[in-house]
Amino acid sequence: MYKRAGILIISVVLLVLFGCASPGPGPMDGNDTDAHGCIGSAGYVWCDYSQQCIRPWEENCTSPDGLSAQADALYADYSFTAANGLYSQAREEYLAGGNAEGARRSLDRINSMNRILMEFQYTNESAVYQQISEVLPNASQEQMRAWLSTQYLMIDGTPHYFYSAGDNVLFSNTQVKRQMLRESNRSNVMTELFDSVLEGMDGAHPTPYSNPVNYTGVENLYIPRSELPASGVLRLWMPVPIDTDSQKDARVVSITPDDYLVGAPTTDGDIGLAYMEVPLENLGGDLNITIVFAFTSYEQHFEIDSGNVGEYDTESGLYQKYTGSSENIVVSPEVRELALEAVGNETNPYLQAEKLYWFVINTTEYHFVPHVTLSELGIPESEYARVNHIGDCGTQSMYFSALARSIGIPARASGGYQMFGGGTGSHFWAQFYLPNYGWVPADVTAAEAADWVYEPSDAANHAVKGFFFGNLDVTRFVIQDDVDLPVAPPAQGRVFFPMVRQFPAAELDTDDDDIGAVVAGSFTIKVSPA
């Protein structure tokens, strides 16, 4: 097993529930034997599964499938320590029996628990409360308890707090958040973006795409040789830009080294990928992959005539795909009820989408979300937002999309990066489809960020929020048109955080550790105007 590269922030104590190795029927204490030669006075009994004498308190007479089933029940109950021990034992027995699939599933479950613990890492409730009181000294225990009600999981019977719990409490206290942003460069960056939005609203724009900006990007994956197994094939799906209506001339300039590349990079599909295979037995030094890419991004300004929207082709593949449920955008009866309440008597899809946009802004508070945990537990992002009334850019975009889909408006969440202020920050935003206009943007989170700028005027605040419905700034880098789309070629199992391709997906058949998390933590990217 190789080094975990600091990915796991806390360790999980393994509960050893009887060893796997057992002695053959050799000399035993006592002299009373049964039909199988087991000496009862020494505590030995016959185990049909292993076909030998065992002491039940030393060894388990259960098949690896039985161990795995017991572990599954403990996992579902968030009893991670006990589940980890059983999964570890099951994996050893699967490997001994040549069952690679069973061994892989056991390891996947162990990694799943570690990923959840990575996000819910704080167990000292007093320390969390102290962090809050330092920035909100007048907050009562009752207030703090209410703010933290969605910020912890009970794991092994103990509250484990989300690592961004303190940040999320600040998002619930806008004035304090504004003051902190005012004292940081982040406030200046957002003010710069919103000032440019307001200035641009004063003049006419060619529609829907204008003012192109050329960008270049450099991404790097670096992993020391000591943190990788000696053998096996490391499969990598590296992110690259794609051609869309608002992003043109997407291309890969160079890949270094290019020996691992399998086929040409995909820049004309729904997800931009450069697929690579690294034979580790031939890797003499550190793994160091660099990709340089380029694309042109356009501002988006849609001027929609609600009377000219047209009729949907409800039999088309596009309509069927983007009005149904996917893994993280769920069209449930509950979400449809909310959508119908939000749109009221309005029947025009453009005006309905606008009402849904403001509904999400007004009812869903911005919060950092434990995305990896939601993914591991199979909790859809849109449902998390609906139930908890909180979410970040991805969650809010998927919630808007679910609401729109529920009343027959095709919608999706697109992902990549946003580069305003010279940075490269991961981001998602929504799009909804209108027959005579195509895919129209709706960035709920960019709109909500107007609340964080220090003391904006009410008029400016509303204008900025309104801009991001039907318009989008030029500082966008699109990697995926939609979440919940699989990588290509298909992965053999479930990759780490499968809905996001802002970092590489990875698989390794000889991996005893969480290669997906290792790769994600070893990846950097920077996109700048050319």
Could you characterize what this model shows?
- The longest helix is centred in the N-terminal third of the chain and has 20 residues, at 100-119.
- The protein contains 17 helices and 18 strands.
- A hairpin with a 6-residue loop joins strand 12 and strand 13.
- With 530 residues, the chain is α+β, with helices and mostly antiparallel strands.
Keywords:
globular, disordered N terminus, alpha+beta, 21% strand
Secondary structure: elements and pairs:
Layout: E1 45-47, E2 52-54, H1 64-76, H2 80-96, H3 100-119, H4 125-135, H5 141-147, E3 152-155, E4 158-161, H6 165-171, H7 174-182, H8 185-200, E5 209-223, E6 233-239, E7 247-256, E8 273-279, E9 287-301, H9 317-322, H10 333-343, H11 349-363, E10 365-366, H12 371-377, H13 381-388, E11 390-391, H14 393-406, E12 411-418, E13 425-434, E14 438-442, H15 444-448, H16 458-467, E15 471-472, E16 476-480, E17 505-508, H17 515-520, E18 523-529
Parallel strand pairs: 10-11
Antiparallel strand pairs: 1-2, 3-4, 5-9, 5-18, 6-8, 6-17, 7-9, 9-15, 12-13, 12-16, 13-14
Helix pairs in contact: 1-2, 1-3, 2-3, 4-6, 7-8, 10-14, 11-14, 13-14
